Amino acid sequence: MLRLLIVTLAVCATICAAAQTRNSPMEAIAHLTGPPQSDNTQVKGNVTFIQNDCGQSVHVRIQLENVMQGKHGFHIHEKGDLSNGCTSLGGHYNPDKVDHGAPHHEVRHVGDLGNIEVNASRIIDITYTDSVISLSGKRTIIGRSVVLHELEDDLGLGNHTDSKKTGNAGGRIACGVIGIKSDVDEWPCRGGGADALRQSMSIVSIVVALIIARGL
Ligand SMILES: *[C@@H]1O[C@H](CO)[C@@H](O)[C@H](O)[C@H]1NC(C)=O
Ligand SMILES: *[C@@H]1O[C@H](CO)[C@@H](O)[C@H](O)[C@H]1NC(C)=O
Ligand SMILES: *[C@@H]1O[C@H](CO)[C@@H](O)[C@H](O)[C@H]1NC(C)=O
Ligand SMILES: [Cu+2]
Ligand SMILES: [Zn+2]
Protein backbone atom coordinates (compact mmCIF):
# COMPACT_ATOMS: atom_id res chain seq x y z
CA MET A 1 0.00 0.00 0.00
CA LEU A 2 2.74 2.45 0.92
CA ARG A 3 4.45 1.65 -2.37
CA LEU A 4 1.27 2.46 -4.27
CA LEU A 5 1.02 5.77 -2.43
CA ILE A 6 4.56 6.73 -3.36
CA VAL A 7 4.03 5.74 -6.99
CA THR A 8 0.83 7.80 -7.14
CA LEU A 9 2.55 10.85 -5.70
CA ALA A 10 5.47 10.45 -8.09
CA VAL A 11 3.09 10.30 -11.06
CA CYS A 12 1.34 13.41 -9.81
CA ALA A 13 4.61 15.29 -9.39
CA THR A 14 5.63 14.39 -12.95
CA ILE A 15 2.32 15.63 -14.35
CA CYS A 16 2.49 18.84 -12.33
CA ALA A 17 6.02 19.51 -13.59
CA ALA A 18 5.01 18.79 -17.20
CA ALA A 19 2.17 21.30 -16.91
CA GLN A 20 4.65 24.03 -15.97
CA THR A 21 7.17 23.50 -18.75
CA ARG A 22 6.98 24.97 -22.20
CA ASN A 23 9.56 24.19 -24.85
CA SER A 24 9.01 27.14 -27.13
CA PRO A 25 7.28 30.50 -26.89
CA MET A 26 3.88 31.18 -28.40
CA GLU A 27 4.19 33.41 -31.42
CA ALA A 28 1.57 35.17 -33.51
CA ILE A 29 1.67 37.43 -36.55
CA ALA A 30 -0.57 39.89 -38.36
CA HIS A 31 0.19 41.05 -41.92
CA LEU A 32 -1.06 44.58 -42.41
CA THR A 33 -2.34 46.36 -45.48
CA GLY A 34 -4.68 49.27 -45.91
CA PRO A 35 -6.56 51.42 -48.39
CA PRO A 36 -4.63 53.84 -50.66
CA GLN A 37 -3.69 57.05 -48.87
CA SER A 38 -3.82 60.61 -50.22
CA ASP A 39 -0.44 60.10 -51.96
CA ASN A 40 -1.59 56.73 -53.36
CA THR A 41 0.80 54.66 -51.24
CA GLN A 42 -0.51 51.92 -48.96
CA VAL A 43 0.74 51.09 -45.50
CA LYS A 44 2.17 47.58 -45.37
CA GLY A 45 4.12 45.41 -42.99
CA ASN A 46 3.58 43.15 -40.04
CA VAL A 47 3.20 42.96 -36.30
CA THR A 48 4.57 39.97 -34.39
CA PHE A 49 3.66 38.92 -30.86
CA ILE A 50 5.73 36.65 -28.61
CA GLN A 51 4.64 35.28 -25.23
CA ASN A 52 6.96 32.91 -23.43
CA ASP A 53 4.28 31.35 -21.26
CA CYS A 54 0.69 31.85 -20.22
CA GLY A 55 0.25 34.75 -17.82
CA GLN A 56 3.44 36.46 -19.00
CA SER A 57 3.83 39.77 -20.83
CA VAL A 58 3.68 39.89 -24.60
CA HIS A 59 6.53 41.32 -26.69
CA VAL A 60 5.14 43.24 -29.65
CA ARG A 61 7.25 44.10 -32.70
CA ILE A 62 5.78 46.54 -35.21
CA GLN A 63 7.41 46.73 -38.65
CA LEU A 64 5.60 48.99 -41.09
CA GLU A 65 6.35 51.15 -44.10
CA ASN A 66 4.63 54.01 -45.96
CA VAL A 67 3.13 55.40 -42.76
CA MET A 68 2.66 59.19 -42.71
CA GLN A 69 4.99 60.90 -40.27
CA GLY A 70 3.49 61.53 -36.84
CA LYS A 71 1.56 59.71 -34.15
CA HIS A 72 -1.00 57.05 -34.98
CA GLY A 73 -3.40 55.20 -32.70
CA PHE A 74 -2.66 51.48 -32.59
CA HIS A 75 -5.13 48.97 -31.16
CA ILE A 76 -6.29 45.38 -30.99
CA HIS A 77 -9.82 45.28 -32.37
CA GLU A 78 -12.38 42.67 -31.35
CA LYS A 79 -12.99 40.87 -34.64
CA GLY A 80 -10.99 39.16 -37.35
CA ASP A 81 -13.58 39.82 -40.05
CA LEU A 82 -12.05 41.52 -43.10
CA SER A 83 -15.13 41.15 -45.29
CA ASN A 84 -15.41 44.93 -45.48
CA GLY A 85 -11.71 45.69 -45.09
CA CYS A 86 -10.61 47.35 -41.87
CA THR A 87 -14.12 48.68 -41.22
CA SER A 88 -15.65 45.28 -40.32
CA LEU A 89 -13.20 44.53 -37.51
CA GLY A 90 -15.47 45.92 -34.79
CA GLY A 91 -14.37 48.22 -31.98
CA HIS A 92 -11.44 48.04 -29.59
CA TYR A 93 -11.16 44.64 -27.89
CA ASN A 94 -12.83 45.46 -24.57
CA PRO A 95 -14.07 42.36 -22.70
CA ASP A 96 -14.31 44.31 -19.41
CA LYS A 97 -16.62 46.95 -20.93
CA VAL A 98 -14.64 49.83 -19.48
CA ASP A 99 -13.52 53.22 -20.83
CA HIS A 100 -10.79 53.74 -23.39
CA GLY A 101 -7.35 54.63 -22.02
CA ALA A 102 -3.59 54.51 -22.45
CA PRO A 103 -1.56 51.26 -22.27
CA HIS A 104 -0.20 52.26 -18.85
CA HIS A 105 -3.58 53.33 -17.41
CA GLU A 106 -5.29 51.26 -14.74
CA VAL A 107 -8.54 51.58 -16.72
CA ARG A 108 -8.10 50.73 -20.42
CA HIS A 109 -9.49 48.47 -23.07
CA VAL A 110 -7.46 45.25 -23.34
CA GLY A 111 -6.82 46.37 -26.94
CA ASP A 112 -5.48 49.83 -26.08
CA LEU A 113 -1.87 49.86 -27.25
CA GLY A 114 -1.57 53.66 -27.45
CA ASN A 115 0.25 55.40 -30.29
CA ILE A 116 3.19 54.65 -32.51
CA GLU A 117 5.29 57.60 -33.62
CA VAL A 118 6.68 57.45 -37.12
CA ASN A 119 9.58 59.66 -38.28
CA ALA A 120 10.27 61.24 -41.68
CA SER A 121 11.54 57.91 -43.08
CA ARG A 122 7.89 56.78 -42.92
CA ILE A 123 9.21 53.41 -41.76
CA ILE A 124 8.80 52.10 -38.25
CA ASP A 125 10.45 49.17 -36.49
CA ILE A 126 9.81 49.14 -32.76
CA THR A 127 9.45 46.51 -30.07
CA TYR A 128 7.73 46.94 -26.75
CA THR A 129 6.07 44.85 -24.07
CA ASP A 130 2.47 44.85 -22.88
CA SER A 131 1.25 43.01 -19.80
CA VAL A 132 -2.51 43.16 -20.49
CA ILE A 133 -2.86 41.47 -23.89
CA SER A 134 -2.29 37.71 -24.09
CA LEU A 135 -1.85 35.05 -26.77
CA SER A 136 -3.32 32.42 -24.48
CA GLY A 137 -6.25 31.93 -22.15
CA LYS A 138 -9.88 32.90 -22.46
CA ARG A 139 -8.95 36.38 -23.66
CA THR A 140 -6.47 35.46 -26.33
CA ILE A 141 -6.03 38.05 -29.07
CA ILE A 142 -5.58 35.25 -31.65
CA GLY A 143 -8.32 35.57 -34.27
CA ARG A 144 -8.79 39.25 -33.51
CA SER A 145 -7.04 42.07 -35.34
CA VAL A 146 -4.61 44.97 -35.22
CA VAL A 147 -5.66 48.37 -36.55
CA LEU A 148 -3.50 51.40 -37.27
CA HIS A 149 -5.30 54.76 -37.31
CA GLU A 150 -4.88 57.92 -39.28
CA LEU A 151 -4.68 60.20 -36.24
CA GLU A 152 -3.19 60.32 -32.78
CA ASP A 153 -5.08 58.46 -30.04
CA ASP A 154 -5.87 61.01 -27.29
CA LEU A 155 -5.67 58.12 -24.75
CA GLY A 156 -9.08 58.96 -23.29
CA LEU A 157 -7.87 62.39 -22.15
CA GLY A 158 -9.33 64.58 -24.89
CA ASN A 159 -12.63 66.47 -24.81
CA HIS A 160 -14.08 64.98 -27.98
CA THR A 161 -17.22 62.88 -27.37
CA ASP A 162 -15.38 59.78 -28.69
CA SER A 163 -12.36 60.23 -26.44
CA LYS A 164 -13.47 57.67 -23.84
CA LYS A 165 -14.60 55.23 -26.55
CA THR A 166 -11.98 55.29 -29.29
CA GLY A 167 -9.43 57.96 -28.39
CA ASN A 168 -10.75 59.88 -31.41
CA ALA A 169 -7.99 58.41 -33.58
CA GLY A 170 -9.79 58.85 -36.91
CA GLY A 171 -9.94 56.46 -39.86
CA ARG A 172 -8.31 53.04 -40.22
CA ILE A 173 -5.22 53.21 -42.44
CA ALA A 174 -4.04 49.61 -42.05
CA CYS A 175 -5.14 46.39 -40.42
CA GLY A 176 -4.56 42.65 -40.27
CA VAL A 177 -5.87 39.53 -38.56
CA ILE A 178 -3.73 37.99 -35.81
CA GLY A 179 -2.82 34.36 -36.57
CA ILE A 180 -0.66 31.65 -35.03
CA LYS A 181 2.94 31.71 -36.21
CA SER A 182 4.91 29.33 -34.01
CA ASP A 183 5.15 25.58 -34.17
CA VAL A 184 3.38 24.97 -30.89
CA ASP A 185 1.00 22.03 -30.61
CA GLU A 186 -0.71 23.12 -27.45
CA TRP A 187 -1.69 26.60 -26.43
CA PRO A 188 -2.13 26.57 -22.67
CA CYS A 189 -4.77 28.43 -20.68
CA ARG A 190 -7.37 28.43 -23.44
CA GLY A 191 -10.16 28.18 -20.83
CA GLY A 192 -10.64 24.56 -19.74
CA GLY A 193 -7.89 23.30 -22.05
CA ALA A 194 -5.10 20.83 -21.49
CA ASP A 195 -3.74 22.74 -18.51
CA ALA A 196 -7.00 22.58 -16.59
CA LEU A 197 -7.19 18.84 -17.34
CA ARG A 198 -3.65 18.28 -16.09
CA GLN A 199 -4.35 20.29 -12.97
CA SER A 200 -7.51 18.40 -12.11
CA MET A 201 -5.69 15.10 -12.73
CA SER A 202 -3.00 16.18 -10.27
CA ILE A 203 -5.63 17.07 -7.69
CA VAL A 204 -7.39 13.73 -8.24
CA SER A 205 -4.12 11.85 -7.69
CA ILE A 206 -3.45 13.74 -4.46
CA VAL A 207 -6.96 12.96 -3.19
CA VAL A 208 -6.58 9.28 -4.15
CA ALA A 209 -3.20 9.19 -2.39
CA LEU A 210 -4.73 10.71 0.76
CA ILE A 211 -7.60 8.19 0.77
CA ILE A 212 -5.12 5.33 0.39
CA ALA A 213 -2.96 6.78 3.16
CA ARG A 214 -5.97 6.90 5.52
CA GLY A 215 -6.77 3.27 4.72
CA LEU A 216 -3.27 2.13 5.74
C1 LIG B 1 7.83 41.78 -41.54
O1 LIG B 1 8.11 43.00 -42.20
C2 LIG B 1 9.49 43.29 -42.34
C3 LIG B 1 9.62 44.68 -42.91
O2 LIG B 1 8.86 44.80 -44.10
C4 LIG B 1 10.15 42.23 -43.21
O3 LIG B 1 11.53 42.46 -43.29
C5 LIG B 1 9.92 40.88 -42.55
O4 LIG B 1 10.42 39.86 -43.38
C6 LIG B 1 8.43 40.64 -42.33
N1 LIG B 1 8.26 39.39 -41.60
C7 LIG B 1 7.45 38.44 -42.02
C8 LIG B 1 7.40 37.20 -41.22
O5 LIG B 1 6.77 38.57 -43.03
C1 LIG C 1 13.31 56.51 -38.13
O1 LIG C 1 12.70 55.31 -37.70
C2 LIG C 1 13.38 54.16 -38.19
C3 LIG C 1 12.55 52.92 -37.81
O2 LIG C 1 12.06 52.93 -36.49
C4 LIG C 1 14.78 54.14 -37.60
O3 LIG C 1 15.47 53.01 -38.09
C5 LIG C 1 15.52 55.39 -38.00
O4 LIG C 1 16.77 55.43 -37.38
C6 LIG C 1 14.72 56.63 -37.62
N1 LIG C 1 15.36 57.81 -38.15
C7 LIG C 1 15.65 58.87 -37.39
C8 LIG C 1 16.25 60.01 -38.10
O5 LIG C 1 15.42 58.87 -36.18
C1 LIG D 1 -11.05 71.13 -25.27
O1 LIG D 1 -12.04 72.07 -25.66
C2 LIG D 1 -11.64 73.41 -25.56
C3 LIG D 1 -12.83 74.31 -25.84
O2 LIG D 1 -13.65 73.79 -26.86
C4 LIG D 1 -10.47 73.67 -26.50
O3 LIG D 1 -10.05 75.02 -26.41
C5 LIG D 1 -9.33 72.74 -26.11
O4 LIG D 1 -8.26 72.89 -27.01
C6 LIG D 1 -9.79 71.32 -26.12
N1 LIG D 1 -8.74 70.46 -25.59
C7 LIG D 1 -8.34 69.35 -26.19
C8 LIG D 1 -7.26 68.56 -25.52
O5 LIG D 1 -8.84 68.97 -27.23
CU1 LIG E 1 -8.48 51.19 -33.24
ZN1 LIG F 1 -9.70 51.65 -26.67
From TrEMBL:
CDD domains named in the record: Cu-Zn_Superoxide_Dismutase (cd00305)
Domain Superoxide dismutase copper/zinc binding: 43-178
UniProt GO MF annotations: copper ion binding; superoxide dismutase activity
Entry's transmembrane regions: none
InterPro entries tied to this protein: SOD-like_Cu/Zn_dom_sf (IPR036423), SOD_Cu/Zn_/chaperone (IPR024134), SOD_Cu/Zn_BS (IPR018152), SOD_Cu_Zn_dom (IPR001424)
Entry keyword Oxidoreductase: yes
Signal peptide: 1-18
Annotated EC: 1.15.1.1
Reactions listed under catalytic activity: 2 superoxide + 2 H(+) = H2O2 + O2
Top EC group: oxidoreductase
Textual note on the cofactor: Binds 1 zinc ion per subunit.
Keywords assigned by UniProt, alphabetized: Antioxidant, Copper, Disulfide bond, Metal-binding, Oxidoreductase, Signal, Zinc
Cofactor: Zn(2+); Cu cation
Keyword Metal-binding appears in the UniProt entry: yes
Family membership noted in the UniProt record: Belongs to the Cu-Zn superoxide dismutase family.
Protein task: Destroys radicals which are normally produced within the cells and which are toxic to biological systems.
Name of the protein this chain belongs to: Superoxide dismutase [Cu-Zn]
Organism: Drosophila hydei
The encoding gene: LOC111605409
